[in-house]
Amino acid sequence: MSRPGSIPATPSSSTASPAPATPVQHLSSWSSSSPTRLQALYSDFSRQKSSNPASFQANVEWWRKSLDEVVRTGLQDAFSGKLGTGKSRLVLHANSSLLEQLKVPKAGKPLALGAILSDLRSSHSFYPLEEFLSLKYSLYSTSSLPVRVASYVVGKPLWWALEQMGITGEEGVLSSRAHHHKGTAWHGDYVIVSLVEAAAERVLEAQRDYSAAGLADTLYSVEGFRRAFGSLVLGEEAEGSAMGEQDAMDVVKFVTEDAPPEERVITPVDRGVLELKDAVANMHTQVDAVQTKIDQCTKRASEALAKDRKTHALSYIRSRKQLQEVLSKRLGSLATLESTLITVEAAAGDVEIMKSYESSTATLRAILSHPSLQRESVDKTLEALAEANADARELDNSIRIAGDAALGVEENVDEGEVEAEWAELVRQMSMDEKEGTEEKLGDEALKTPTGVPHEKSTGRGEEGKVAVPSI
């Protein structure tokens, strides 16, 4: 029997229906974890840091990725409890609203959140916002205290060594006691380093694609930077939106990777150029606004004339003429400002060119001042080179003469005599060839038909007979 005013039970409601999923449970970190795992993650596991360090670190790493997702997806915006700060995709607002946001059925609120944030802060995965903005050195500098201490304790468990040296532990300066998970000591804003790194990569890539042509293109005011790169930080779904005030809080200057230290600071010249750049941007806005008003007056005057309202039409025309005068002045001012900005950028470029000239001159002078390039050294080197070449020629002649002698070639041969002997040899060979031909023809004439040779008479009797051998 049901109580008055209660809803009668239905056959399908014999068991309690599951509680509706909270927004955080739709995130991948929660949806991929089992209820048992979530209960362990939501319990107070802070004591495991000493008793079971591996389990403690695994739980902290899960929360690091999960809080990263909470901030990156913008889920915390509705629960941050901060008004007027805009959307933030880089900073975690840790407070009681965050506890309510992270609450899930059957697991409740994360009891170890204070210890988690303390550990993430110690590992420099999360930075308190004020500490982050006041850093005097790079996040990746090895001059920080924990890194310098760690360099002396290689080979020992890091946390044990730091505790022994009083850096962490019960009384250490990085002790979790300072940000204990109980109470509200852990409340505050934390910069998530991984999100800052990812956003920085996207911003730098966009700036490289932009191919800055001048000094002004490397400088942004807070508002200008938020407008230019807001969608890269907030995500594509926030196209055209400005990032939160805490995501960009100072003048931004882009420098090259090999820029010297003096160029890695915001100089008075940078601020002056940035003011001029903002003035040009504001003047463009004013010109656009005045032109819009002129168009409106023109439209209204036409509408008034169409309705035969001469007085109204004349009023709109007078307003338009006044606005046209204002527009003319604004355009003149804009031209002056843009010309000034171009001149300033050109002067800044001239400074860079002169620095390059000075560097090149210094390099050339340094090379020319080398002892090897001094006049005496050059003359001495060239004389030595000439002597070496002469020695080489002499050695070559000696080798050639020795080779000729080995082959039986006489020295000091008269080329004229050689030519004469060659001509005589050719003449003699021609004569021998001619005589051989004549002798052959004569022998052919003395042959008998049977091939038996006749005796050739010489006119000297029997003694003068000469036997001609057969051929």
Proportion of strand residues: under 5%
Task: Please give the number of β-strands.
Answer: 5
Poorly predicted regions are 1-16, 81-85, 142-181, 236-242, 454-471
On the 0 to 100 scale, the average pLDDT is 74
Radius of gyration: 51 Å
SSE string: HHHHEHHEHHHEHEHEHHHH
Mind describing the biggest β-sheet? 3 strands, antiparallel
Structural class estimated from helices and strands:
mainly alpha
Work out the helicity level. Answer: 55-70%
Terminal CA distance reads 159 Å
Q: Helical region count?
A: 15
Name the shape in a single word.
Answer: elongated
Within the largest sheet, what's the order of strands?
A: 1-3-2
InterPro entries: Snf7_fam
Region (Disordered): 1-32, 432-471
GO cellular component, one term: multivesicular body
GO biological process, one term: late endosome to vacuole transport via multivesicular body sorting pathway
List descriptors.
471 residues; mainly alpha; Helix Hairpins; two-stranded antiparallel ribbon; 15 helices; disordered N terminus; disordered C terminus
Your description of this structure?
- The chain is mainly alpha-helical.
- Among the domains are: 20-195, no CATH class; 267-350, Helix Hairpins.
- The protein has helices at 28-31, 35-42, 48-51, 53-72, 96-102, 113-122, 129-133, 145-150, 158-164, 193-210, 222-234, 268-306, 310-368, 375-406, 415-446, and strands at 91-94, 126-128, 188-192, 219-220, 252-253.
- The chain has a 3-stranded antiparallel sheet.
- The radius of gyration is 51 Å and the shape is elongated.
- The relative contact order is 0.05.
- One of its GO terms (biological process) is vesicle budding from membrane.
- Residues 8-32 have a biased composition (Low complexity).
- Residues 432-446, 453-465 have a biased composition (Basic and acidic residues).
- Residues 1-32, 432-471 are annotated as: Disordered.
